[in-house]
Specification:
elongated; mainly beta; single chain; 18-stranded antiparallel sheet; 11-stranded antiparallel sheet; about 10% helix
Length: about 850
């Protein structure tokens, strides 16, 4: 959500201005009945430069060369040649139905017949040879890669330029350019350049290593959250794959063997020499609206059947939020008669609050270029396993001469001006205020020199014990790559009239292995038992500790005093080992309504109301494919869609600092996101755990309930707090989001862009007789020994930001005073 808030805050920029292209035209293609013709082919006469009209028949086309005519065609209509001027906008081109075509059956309702289609025959040969193209032909490979990420403000009219909002910043409009894709004016505001050395291995187990050699930022270079958001937008993809993942959505590739023919119409449109290679040009467009598809064309060699050029423009009616347009170009180089290698990859996205043509927005662009391919130069497995994870200042301080030599594509005049523009903007007070607001929305912290105040989103709270709660906190911040950090907070409850606090510090002693030590202490009131898998995080506080948006009783809170010390190391990227020691005291924060009592001597009626416990723990956390930026003691995640494996062993030590219990506890947590082609994304979470020894309620495993009005991950929507108590458990959560796969085929729902969500949750657990006998609490122990389960259906993407879930209890329905049905919702920004 934070990352999406960042770009929404930027949707405010710019104006029209001519670029340097010789010919720029735009318009709409219609038939004689004044109905728009989607996916018509428009090409400059005497060239291979062309485009395809969108689903509303609209198009834009430009060229640096001088052309005076365009040719417009579509199957079933007469091809039309139209004279054009250098700047010819708002053309209306009317095509006539071809009489001979009316008797044929090649086209029906805009769909191309599959049988006998020469374009599909060519596709079949592409599928047969796709694994014989490019770098996959070689045992090992390496190349140099240059990447340029850019953000541009777009589509601002003259009224916006003259508005008070830009007063004092008028100079920024001096760098306006025009997009060759959309024809809209834009102003570059951010650029990030990187040079990489990449290595790969195909034989004997696929491996890949990419070393960052140089990096240069303009714009928000010190805001790690902004940079993380930008890098998260663009991931690598392969047009030969069946599905292309963009913004966590699976678009059907036009080269897809699994779904291409059932998703797209294909037309063999042209043939020509490209770099002395005879190639066929195939035009494609989607068969249905509302699906995650593209329109465009590609050139394919007639002997190797390798793709030479391809462009893909996303269907405007595709079920994706905050993005008005997506455009992709790829060019492949010819190594020899049989090997085509990726040379240039370009992707542009138009971010906007809506998909109206005149809406203001933000272009996000990525240009990636490849050169100096080397093949079969042997590298050992040890080379690929070596982690390069230390911060090297030389990477970020390369001289201008280095960049002039290593850029594979020169910056244009406006791109070069970004560095100077942002230096100047940084001195403008109004821009500083805008930047600070964006930063607060993104991180939740207010910057004060080397100290950040926050988290501002946790300032207010309320529960049955504290009443209204006021919190203030902060952290040290020295730019984001500092080796140490201190953070803390204090809070006051107006009902219990008590102050609470938390303070912690961590210090990374070795940047290469990320060897880190930390310690902290927290005294607070908290709802424990809202997570099966627990940690000793001093600064963490559960969502259920506040009842602003909760139902039912919220008085089962615990006063906790937790101190901990830990050491951690990361011998491999995303593999973390941690050893720690902690001491805690637990007691009820509301003894009148809830207690944690246990028997010390049941025969003599002696019991104790509080728990004192010393514990040591060892944890292994593995997060494959997790991407982060920054090299300080705390890093910023680029994406949250990755697998997580967590294993923890804890041992309670009786007598150490008057500790009460001896026990051993083992916990395992596994979360796996799975992108299932065109069927959406599934999340599965498995949790297992067992406590060996006799312990009271405060140290047992409580199945997490959810008494809030919101859908909360890893909780059970129909359980109350402490409804199930276990010392042995197994829990499984499965949720699948179809991303509108079925709603997109229902006319009444298609335009709403709703998304279908289904889920199921189950937990099994038991509690030993000894732990039952130890309890003197007013909580009645009940374990789900016969498996508790619940299931749900939901509708997401309501007004783009809301989802609603309907949940049913599948078992334990006859227990008194339980919820068998619930409606909950959740807010969030998602593409």
């Amino acid at each position: 959500m934070k990352k999406n808030n960042i770009f929404l805050s930027f949707l405010f920029s710019l104006v029209f201005l001519s670029g340097f292209s010789q010919v720029k035209i735009s318009g709409v293609v219609k038939d004689e009945n004044n109905q728009s013709i989607p996916f018509a082919n428009i090409v400059f006469v005497g060239s291979s430069t062309g485009t395809v009209s969108d689903e509303n028949g609209k198009f834009y086309l430009e060229s640096a060369k001088t052309y005076t005519k365009i040719e417009v065609s579509f199957m079933g209509y007469e091809t039309k040649t139209v004279s054009v001027k250098n700047r010819d906008y708002n053309l209306t081109i009317v095509l006539k139905e071809e009489a001979a075509q009316l008797k044929q059956v090649f086209i029906y309702a805009g769909k191309v017949k599959k049988k006998g289609n020469p374009a599909i025959a060519i596709l079949e040969k592409i599928w047969a040879k796709k694994r014989e193209n490019g770098i996959y032909l070689f045992d090992q490979y390496q190349y140099n890669k240059y990447e340029k990420l850019e953000f541009d403000m777009n589509n601002i009219d003259s009224a916006m330029i003259k508005s008070k909002f830009f007063k004092g910043m008028e100079f920024i409009f001096e760098g306006i350019d025009t997009s060759h894709i959309t024809g809209k004016s834009f102003l570059p505001i951010f650029i990030n350049e990187s040079v990489y050395k990449s290595f790969g291995k195909n034989k004997g187990g696929k491996k890949f290593r990419e070393d960052l050699i140089a990096n240069k930022n303009s714009g928000f270079e010190n805001n790690q959250t902004v940079i993380a958001f930008i890098k998260d937008l663009y991931v690598d993809y392969n047009v030969y794959d069946s599905y292309i993942k963009i913004f966590d959505k699976s678009f059907v590739s036009p080269i897809s063997k699994a779904a291409g023919v059932s998703t797209y119409n294909y037309i063999l449109a042209d043939s020509a020499f490209i770099d002395n290679k005879w190639c066929f040009n195939i035009l494609y467009y989607p068969r249905r609206k509302g699906e995650l598809t593209f329109k465009g064309n590609f050139w394919v060699n007639d002997t190797t059947f390798a793709i030479k050029k391809i462009n893909m423009q996303a269907n405007k009616s595709a079920n994706i939020n905050w993005v008005k347009d997506i455009y992709i170009e790829q060019e492949f180089d010819v190594l020899n008669d049989s090997v085509f290698l990726l040379k240039r990859d370009y992707m542009m996205s138009d971010f906007s609050l809506n998909k109206k043509d005149k809406s203001k927005g933000l272009y996000g662009k990525r240009t990636t270029m490849f050169k100096d391919y080397v093949f079969n130069e042997k590298k050992s497995d040890a080379f690929y396993n070596e982690e390069i994870n230390a911060y090297d200042k030389n990477i970020y301080s390369k001289a201008d001469d280095y960049w002039s030599e290593n850029r594979q594509e020169k910056l244009n005049e406006n791109e070069q001006g970004i560095y100077k523009l942002l230096d100047t903007l940084a001195t403008v007070p109004k821009f500083k205020r805008i930047y600070n607001l964006v930063s607060i929305l993104g991180s939740g912290y207010i910057e004060f020199n080397k100290f950040d105040f926050g988290d501002v989103f946790s300032t207010f709270g309320k529960n049955d014990v504290e009443g209204w709660r006021l919190r203030a906190g902060g952290r040290t911040f020295l730019g984001g790559n500092e080796p140490w950090r201190l953070q803390g907070y204090t809070a006051y409850g107006f009902k219990d009239d008590k102050f609470k606090y938390g303070i912690s510090g961590k210090w990374m002693l070795n940047p290469k292995s990320r060897f880190t030590v930390g310690l902290g202490n927290r005294r607070d009131v908290e709802q424990i038992g809202v997570s099966l898998t627990t940690t000793n995080d001093v600064m963490g506080r559960s969502f259920a500790s506040s009842s602003l948006f909760s139902s039912g009783d919220n008085s089962k809170l615990t006063s906790i005093n937790l101190s901990n010390f830990f050491m951690s190391i990361e011998p491999r990227n995303n593999l973390n080992f941690k050893v720690g020691a902690s001491y805690r005291t637990l007691e009820s924060a509301s003894p009148e309504t809830f207690n944690l009592d246990y028997w010390v001597d049941k025969e003599n009626n002696i019991k104790k109301a509080d728990v004192s416990q010393s514990e040591i723990d060892f944890t292994v956390t593995y997060t494959p494919n997790r991407k982060t930026i920054g090299y300080g003691v705390e890093r910023t995640e680029v994406t949250d869609v990755y697998s997580t494996l967590f294993l923890n062993y804890s041992k309670g030590i009786k007598g150490l600092f008057d500790s009460d219990f001896n026990y051993q506890k083992v916990q395992f947590y596994y979360r796996q996101p799975v992108l299932i082609g065109g069927l959406g994304r599934m999340f599965t979470t498995l949790e297992l755990g067992k406590t060996f020894g006799e312990v009271p309620l405060g140290l047992l495993n409580v199945v997490p309930g959810n008494q809030s009005y919101f859908t909360i991950e890893n909780t059970y929507s129909l359980l109350d707090y402490y409804e199930f108590v276990t010392d042995t458990y197994a829990s499984l959560h499965v949720e699948h989001n179809f991303n509108g796969k079925f709603f997109s085929r229902i006319p009444l729902f298609r335009k709403l862009n709703l998304r279908e969500i289904v889920g199921a949750k189950a937990v099994w657990g038991e509690i030993s007789d000894k732990n039952m006998a130890l309890s003197a609490s007013n909580i009645n122990y009940l374990a789900p020994s016969k498996v508790y389960y619940e299931y749900s259906v939901g509708v997401g993407n309501i007004f783009k930001v809301f989802r609603i879930d309907f949940s049913w209890r599948g078992s334990y329905r006859d227990v008194p005073n339980v919820n068998n049905f619930a409606i909950k919702g959740a807010f969030g920004f998602h593409f």
